[in-house]
Amino acid sequence: MTDAAELSLRTRELLAAHPPESTDRLDFLKARFDAGLAWVHFPEGLGGLGAPRSLQAVVDAELEAAGAPDNDPRRIGIGLGMAAPTILAYGTDEQKRRLLRPLWVGEEVWCQLFSEPGAGSDLAALGTRAVRDGDAWVVNGQKVWTSNAHNARWAILIARTDPDLPKHRGITYFVCDMTDPGVEVRPLRQITGEAEFNEVFLSDVRIPDAMRLGEIGDGWKVAQTTLMNERVAIGGMRLPREGGMIAPVAKAWRERPELRTHDLHQRLLQLWVETEVARLTGERLRQQLVAGHPGPEGSGMKLGFARLNQKVSGLEVELLGEEGLLYDDWTMRRPEIVDFVGREAGYRYLRSKGNSIEGGTSEVLLNIVAERVLGLPSEPRTDKDVAWKDLAR
Amino acid sequence: MSDLLYSETEDELRSAVRSLLADRCDAAAVIARTESGEPHDSELWKALGTDMGLAGLLVPEALGGQGATHREAAVVLEELGRAVAPVPYLTSAVIATEVLLGCDSARPEVAELLSVLASGRSVGALALPLSTAPDAAYDVVRSEGERLHGRITGVADAAAADVLLVVADGGLYAVDTAQSTENAVVVEPQTAFDLTRPLAAVTLTGARARALHTDAAPAVRRGLLSGAGLLASEQLGLADWCLTETVRYTRERNQFNRPVGSFQALKHRLAELWLETVNARAAARNAADALAVDSAEAPLAVALAQAYCAPMAVHAAEEALQLHGGIGMTWEHPVHLYLKRAKSDSIALGTAGRHREALAELVDLRAP
User: Fold this and answer.
1) Is 70 exceeded by the pLDDT of residue A127?
2) How far is B281 from chain A, CA to nearest CA, in Å?
């Protein structure tokens, strides 16, 4: 039961039983999940049919053609892209049954309680404590850069359960209920004026042991599943020529000749070339995946896009000249998604500065390329066999 | 969307070329040859061009070639770039051959020339400076009937050529370098910056010529465009060698009691270089594919590939030299061959800046 024809048949059956035009959006999504057409590569009973991942496109195309509602994947990106694959890989049957359906249909939004003020790039140094108390864990600490914490029902959380072990070994992975009275979410206003992220303070939050993902002390390994999926989600966009940040710059250049200077022309052409080449690299990576030969090139995509976004948006502000002196809106908004195209050049310039920090800094990613792709030796480590409690911080 | 991968056939071709070059074209031999009176390796050219049939890759089977495409030729150039091989592949099997393919191959003089170039037994060269961009202006030779007069400098691989393709008064002519009249064709080697792709000045004094085509421009443009597009693959192969060798060296070279490749300052530079080669591969494959399918986007794909790959290869060679430290400055270490080739390649067939200007027109981002 995994071929395209069968999936196509099932999709038509779903549409016949729940006509999109007369069915409530959420009811339709639940029916789709129950039919195994949510993520076809997931197991039966959990929104899938154990089919090859590539066949999802068959289902999606047919549903889109029929005008069926989607689950707004950008809005629920963290749950979909990071929590779900981790729950699937490490969750108990009970956890999978309870959590995956409302996650996929978007009834329950997820956030990610990983980074801390003292543990960013060195994530494994985190200090949020979880102490065992009967059949629960009592959690205390502070997390940061948490998008959607103010909308979230659940969080994936990593916390230190044994400070006497070296840092990577004393961590455990939990699912945290964001409605717990010990969870306090405070907006964190950023350089753009928006509060896209939050700080989250955890005070005596009680997490039942049944909400642990994976073994005690195995949290770092479990988190790798989440982080791997995070980078895939960040780097995997497919764009047409002039599809990204270069679009508004090229448009302004064509439509407003009075803005043109020779210096800007040279820089624009240079960035146009780099953007188009980066797009081809993404396309080549995608072709490799389709052919079943994924290469290591994906490690570099995020790095390349971060740099280009920053250079292109910087050029755009300058090109606009007098208009570049203005900013569209400094109001403290609380956006659900990062909207690069809905705002103006100044916003793009400021927000793209985060592209080389979020989801792994460019410096950390360069180390990963150097060590895992090129096989260069790692730098000597001073934290390897030292108990977390004895590390400098 | 173009096919940016390598096919199985292309992978097989690559291994065959690479293993031949490993046997017959090691760096020490290339360095030694640059100091000899014979800068071209004619034995290697015979093995590649004739025995393996690579000289005829782009020529249809009916005309004595292999009937392959620019995609396969690009893979050959990657390997030749990786070895900085001193053979006239780009000049004869790509540029001169493509110029002839742009003429009427029903004419016996064109068909015959194509088949001798495809066999690898003769070497052809387009008699224009190597720096000529696909859209550049040129016209330096004048014709008096079938006698040509003029002087062209900076012609790549002219010294190895048996036949020169000459543009004179807008027409295209074939000139045999061996002529009975004394001094009608004089090919004087120039001291080239890139020792592995020799340059020469060609002086024609009433040289006997065979008319090939009355309007040379479209055929010459086709030759230069293919040359520039496939040069990107040579630049990719060259850069890939620089990266691979530098990674190997920095893993083995110890300073301050650890391999220098473990220092983050160096690791980041090498990781950046890797990202650039990944991008260059996508750009070079895109150009080769566009030429292979004769896409309307070929001029754009070629300009894009040259605008990216030319400076990229120079950067790779410069980084390789710096990260090798003092050894990189010696004549004995081959990195200088790569730097000289990369820098020359960045001028060959149009600089990156010229190709960006071409792009500006093609994608409607015009100058002020």
Assistant:
1) yes
2) 8
